[in-house]
Design a protein that fits this description.
The chain is built from eleven helices and 23 strands. About 25% of the residues lie in helices and about 20% in strands. The longest helix is centred in the first third of the chain and has 22 residues. It has an eight-stranded parallel beta sheet, with helices on both faces.
């Protein structure tokens, strides 16, 4: 199973009743998704309209398997009667979190060129001109003001979840590489990426720090998905909807990982439940979400049960919050990183060049042993202005660790567990390790299978 994180832990088997989640933080969920990457995947079930029945498809999973999904999915919806019942969706999200499931929301928003509520055809599924779209994303225009008002209408619901301590996997403008929606098929910086960025900036300004921003495309064979990407600063999870085929291809899997650059990846929608072949060949998906009526429409009960009882799949009760935690400290922590035999992570000869060796050495004040542990998952040496890096982006045991230009790739992502005192590289699913467990000065650091031994334990700066 996955390595433990500071706020969340995966247990090997479901207890008879779900373990309730106390209030949690956005970062705790992100850290959790990092921690299970490569070892486990959370089961998810979407619940579409009507808003009066926000758990109907989740209940079908329970009826078939005897278990609830580890991830509940809902929608803020678009039709007038469903918009009037958004409170039921929010209440269900609170309940599902308290019961021990992660929470995901999407929003099929009506085009700003029509009313604030609409039918799917002609409202969400609508073609608008590039001129209208340009006005929507240009401050001061009438359509921009209309769109800002639409966003303002859902803020109170998302604030309720923030105030209740419910982190939300928030997936706006999904399938932005498709033509069916009014925001779609607009690559480049002034298209789907821009309206996504503007929403994040607006919601951040409203204090919605519980939102985990999930970027999403569909498995369109035209590819070039990266042309819709809004940038690492705007994305927490990179996700793919799988509708052109039953399961993502290996090419899909590689393309999504390339865009993610070490961030968690997920299947945002799919109709066919994962099977052993998918879960074995593509182990880095952190969760999957079956779309509403497709649960029974595209799968036999036997297939659903096989997916939910797969040893890599985590259901409600197999994912739980150990402590409420609270919002992460937004500031970097600077100082030494202390490990085996009380010695420190050290830049050889205080070097500043790319490829400089990172080693274990007797702790001493100075620039060679000063590190900034940043909220974005990177660890930076201020003296060289370079980051702790897995050489060549390698994932094999024994790959050495070095200094390299900070570049936002998976080779420079580290997840710390205060429970095991490990520093894990999610891309490799391996831990920072003192080679051979040697305590000699100059022993190189590497990545190795996480094992909890003393040569993988680190104390970070306060």
């Amino acid at each position: 199973m996955a390595a433990l994180t500071a706020a969340l832990v995966v247990t090997p088997a479901a207890p008879p009743t779900a373990q309730a989640f106390p209030p949690g933080s956005k970062q705790a969920v992100i850290d959790y998704l990092h921690s299970i990457t490569g070892s486990s995947v959370v089961s998810g079930q979407h619940n579409k309209e009507p808003a009066t029945l926000p758990g109907q498809y989740t209940q079908q999973v329970k009826d078939i398997t005897g278990q609830y999904p580890g991830l509940w999915g809902g929608d803020l919806m678009f039709r007038a009667d469903d918009a009037a019942n958004r409170q039921r969706v929010v209440d269900k999200a609170k309940t599902e979190w308290a019961n021990g499931s992660l929470v995901a929301l999407t929003w099929h928003a009506c085009s700003p060129t029509v009313g604030s509520t609409c039918e799917f055809d002609g409202g969400v599924k609508k073609q608008i001109s590039q001129g209208d779209f340009d006005q929507i994303v240009t401050g001061g225009t009438g359509l921009n003001q209309t769109w800002r008002q639409r966003m303002a209408e859902v803020v109170p619901y998302l604030r309720q979840l923030r105030d209740a301590g419910v982190p939300v996997l928030w997936r706006p403008f999904h399938e932005m590489n498709e033509t069916w929606n009014w925001w779609g098929a607009r690559p480049g910086g002034n298209g789907g990426a821009k309206i996504y960025q503007q929403m994040k900036d607006y919601f951040d300004a409203q204090g919605l720090d519980n939102l985990i921003w999930v970027w999403n495309v569909q498995d369109n064979p035209a590819g070039n998905w990266a042309s819709y990407y809004p940038g690492h600063a705007y994305v927490d999870v990179v996700s793919l909807d799988v509708w052109y085929k039953g399961h993502p291809s290996q090419s899909d899997y590689q393309q999504i990982q390339s865009i993610a650059g070490g961030k968690p990846i997920a299947i945002g929608e799919m109709g066919k439940v994962p099977n052993d072949a998918l879960l074995t060949s593509q182990p880095r998906w952190s969760y999957f979400m079956i779309w509403s009526e497709q649960l029974r429409g595209s799968n036999s009960d036997a297939e659903i049960r096989s997916a939910y009882f797969h040893p890599r799949v985590l259901n409600q009760g197999e994912v739980h919050v150990e402590s409420g935690g609270g919002p992460p400290d937004p500031a970097s922590r600077t100082g030494p990183i202390v490990g085996l035999a009380g010695k420190c992570v050290d830049v050889a000869a205080s070097g500043t060049a790319n490829g400089t060796v990172v080693q274990l050495y007797t702790c001493a004040p100075g620039v060679a042993q000063t590190w900034e542990v940043r909220p974005d998952g990177t660890i930076r040496n201020p003296n060289s202005n370079r980051c702790l890096d897995v050489a060549g982006g390698g994932t094999a045991n024994g790959t050495q660790v070095q200094l390299w230009d900070c570049n936002g790739t998976g080779a420079q992502q580290w997840v710390y567990s205060s429970m095991t005192q490990s520093l894990r590289n999610p891309q490799a699913s391996r831990c920072l390790d003192v080679t051979g467990g040697s305590t000699a000065n100059g022993t190189r650091l590497q990545i190795w299978d996480c094992n909890g031994r003393a040569n993988q334990r680190w104390i970070l700066p306060v």
